[in-house]
Specification:
Blueprint (H helix, E strand, L loop, with lengths): L3 E6 L2 E6 L10 H13 L7 E6 L4 E3 L4 H4 L4 H19 L5 E5 L2 E3 L1 H7 L3 E5 L3 E3 L13 H9 L1 H10 L3 E2 H6 L5 E3 L1 H16 L3 H14 L4 H15 L3 H11 L16
Parallel strand pairs: 2-3, 3-5, 4-6, 5-7, 6-8, 7-10
Antiparallel strand pairs: 1-2, 8-9
The protein binds octanoyl-coenzyme A.
Length: 263
Amino acid sequence: MEFITYEQDGFVGVVTINRPQALNALNSQVLEEIEATFDAIDLDNTRAVVLTGAGEKSFVAGADIGEMSTLTKAEGEAFGKKGNDVFRKIETFPIPVIAAVNGFALGGGCEISMSCDIRICSDNAVFGQPEVGLGITPGFGGTQRLARLVGAGMAKQMIYSARNIKADEAYRIGLVNAVYTQEELLPAAKKLAATIAANAPIAVRNCKKAINEGLEVDMDKAIVIEEKLFGDCFETEDQKAGMGNFLEKDKEKKLKVVPFQNK
Ligand code: CO8
């Protein structure tokens, strides 16, 4: 890997996009390496992932404008599909992915953060979809995920105006869950990931699936999705241990000692 580093810390994986000379912009190679990194994560021993950018200035400053500048219509569509496929992989990754947004999250940078389950950011973070200023639409899911996350009105304002917003505004509109100083951001992301990793892994995975898949259908279908994933948790060691610990009032037994059961 030239542009991605991966670290494993207990049950938590940390994926860092590391292309500082271009503020971690996403060219084809970076996209391919992100995909390969996620494909290689050991899901038997990893329960949450943190995605961040190298350096103190930028999370991801967008898709690579140099690479895009000469694309034909067909190549543009293919590049959009390439990004969409990778981001969809992150969005549907079996375990939670937390974006630790440590600076610029513009265009494809904002879009990759939105494919993560949770976004937290540093106080110097800047979010935006500047594409219409470059003569294109957002092409890695921005028109779809931003509207779903912050509502159609705010998404349209951000996308049509190409105006960037700072961390405090991103927090106010619900694009990020919390804002930290630069120094505090990565430790906070790892701590949140470790908190998630200490809970019953099958249940956490099923929650992610239920929320994601339920949001795509009407409520009648959504609650059926929940029922199936809820039922799926029963008879697992996690469910027996989790409920058994409560009933036995055994505060010493923590769910985190239960190994993940590969199904
Ligand atoms: N692509 C390529 N290179 C970039 C990018 C980028 N998105 N962003 C920054 N860089 C490079 C700069 O060219 C510069 O390189 P060099 O040192 O060789 O000149 C280096 O990073 C440092 O950048 P700056 O000197 O510009 O740093 P500043 O601190 O002055 O400015 C900014 C930082 C404000 C982030 C500025 O770099 C900027 O505006 N970058 C572009 C941001 C942007 O418009 N992003 C959106 C791109 S479009 C997109 O993401 C669409 C996604 C969907 C694509 C679908 C395809 C079909």
